Amino acid sequence: MRRRVRALFVALIACLAALLPGTPAVAGTVWDYPEFPYPPTTYSEPLRGQFHFSSQSGWMNDPNGLVYANGLYHFFYQHNPHGLAWDTMHWGHATSPDLVHWTQKPIALEPGVHPGTLFSGGGVVDKDNTSGLKTGSLDPIVVFANTDGVSVYYSNDNGQTFQAYDKGRKQIDIPNESRDPKVFWDAARHRWAMVVWSNQGGNGVNIYTSPNLLDWTLASRYQAPWLFECPDMYPLPLDGKAGQQRWVLTSASSQYVVGSFDGTTFRTDWTGPQQMDLGTTYAGGTFYAAQTFTNTPDGSTVQMAWQGGNRGSTWTGNATFPATLALVSTPDGPRITRTPVAELASLASETKSWKSQTINADKGGNLFGTIKADTYEITAQFDVKGASAAQFGFDLHARSDGTADRRVVYDTKEQTLLGKPLKPRNGKVTMRLLVDRGQLETFADDGRYSLSDNVDFDSAADSQGIRLFAIGGKVKLDSATFTRLNTSWGTAQSTLASNLKGPWHAVGGSWSDVSGGKRVSTGGDAFYLSASSGGDAVYQGDITLDTAHAGGLTFRANASGVGYTANIDTSGVVKLWRPGKDIAVHSTPITTGRTYHLKVQTDGPRIRVWLDNGTDPVIDATDSTYTSGLFGVNAFNGTETVQNLNTGTAGFSAFPAGSWTPRGGTWTVTPAGLRGDSAQDGFYLSNRTGDDFTYEGDLSVTNGTAAGLTFRAGTDGAGYTANIDTSGVVKLWRPDRDIAAYATPITEGRTYHLKVRTDGSRIRVWFAGRADPVIDATDDAYTSGLFGVNSFAANTITQNLTIN
User: Fold this and answer.
1) Of the residues 104, 356, 408, 446, which has the fewest C-beta atoms closer than 10 A?
2) Is 542 one of the annotated active-site residues of the chain?
3) Phi first, then psi: what are they for 98, rounded to 5°?
4) Is 24's pLDDT higher than 80?
């Protein structure tokens, strides 16, 4: 969405800024990307939807780039993470395994890190690597944003980080005001297509085609007064028949037309649009800027929209519950239906049902009178053929004084539900209500009727009644079902990277999500335990003692944390212990604020512990008390941060060394390799030294400036570094001098192989497996020193380091 949509939206923003706390959004810095700026929450605040997605904190508006990729649904959205009003748009990010249980993730696209105007856009999964952007085993997620043209951003790690293609330069340049690109796969012609809103001569969309998501050709323009911003376009089979495919083109306000698409041009014989949702369909209303998912596993078309009317003390806005779209024949022509996704049933607990009841105003009574509920679903079918009641329906969150937070009423004379037209079908009126703390979604007539609303429901115990009523007569209730719905929050990890299964549970301490992983504050022993268990295994992770006295990896533990723990302790030891016994210790300085990597391998009673990627274990002990149990982490007396908790041998592969030491920056071990995060120069140094040698490895700049191989260095990192630099060079440098450089494109997110050979003062550098060196220089400032790696103003990955 653009900066100024319309006067109403501007007024809404001004109102929110005046009433709610918050600070203006800010651009981020590359070295600490991705940002996770969210304060802890249990998602239990008043008015916070329990099964409708809302951002953990901050402002949200349009859904962006909805995709199913690599086993997860990804929901990106327009976002100000630093305040409760619209400002400095980021792309927020959440994931779900089932469209119901969402987990807040770090920022996806961040101003200051990703160039361009990060307004609304779309996304796809490039399963066939048509773009050539794929660098690993995962399918790339490719998203599109910017204004007055389109830029491309992509992720090869399933949305954990994004890079800007071609440094964010516009791959489509549009001279008019434009925004909101939405990309889709045109299966009939085996190519991509895109619709982009622009005001060229009035509202409408430009339609582009591409074989590879990068090179785009303008194919046509479809213009219509109603077609204002945030377009979406997708095929639907009419009445579920594969051979009866139609194309749907929608606007931000949920207006749509049905027609055909021949690969270049959209056509329709409709003279005007239909309305998909009957809520308030303006920016900041209850249904706006809806977008559909691409690449769903079953091929279904699932839609979510922005509801701007919901807000609380820490968040503004939420998303509608995901709905499956279909296209059905009616006497008036094809019409869209919206149906909540079937996965909603995963939240169901208590259920009550009724059949063949008469609701009579004269006799009173209330079938739902014994129910107290906060979040729930009601389905009901009424026979209105002989109804004498003028109105009937439900009072939601009703109180004993006769008041209620919302009345859902059907008017038999006007044939309206909630004031919107709804004719009986075969003499029946059906309705389905999704009642959440700040949301009410009403569906009827097999999904032909959809009305999304924000309602401030009072969740107090004396305001959780439900009344089924009739006014002025009676009506027959064929059937009704009440289903209590549990919360969907808190089932996965936001920032803790791990291959261990959830749900996790805490034993002591206060655990929260931070950008560096999981942080705990505890006055004694605290454990955070996964649902994964094992006997013999390799288990590793990164531990940072902020103020804690000790912390480490817990394994073969019961649900209370009783088992083995290998920890680092500020008394100056690495320790293997179990309740009541210190099994073994290794003396070494341990300082707070520094990240240490621990690895444990168990083989029956034999337990070995490695520290900081050393080749040899620092502890090799035997103990047979526990043979199997849960994996987790431990902290003792203070604050601690843990990250990258993984079983298996994947990690940092490097030449034999006794230990590694950081000198600036933060260094952690992921399954992909050694990650460095540094605002300026940061070094990670082994204890191996050399003078003449061949040194090589694989380097990648996730985002930022440079990554390199450091050699002949002192303990502060001062020595030579051969690096890859995203300004477009391979460079050999030492402090205060660039010795030599070779110009070549260096792409963020792509892995490059560097090799260095030293012969006295002669230093040669090979790049990307080439037969000849790209640098052949002489310098005699350093003759011998340590081997290590470097990260400069970036986050980087280093892997497969060897010395010959």
Assistant:
1) 356
2) no
3) -145, 10
4) no
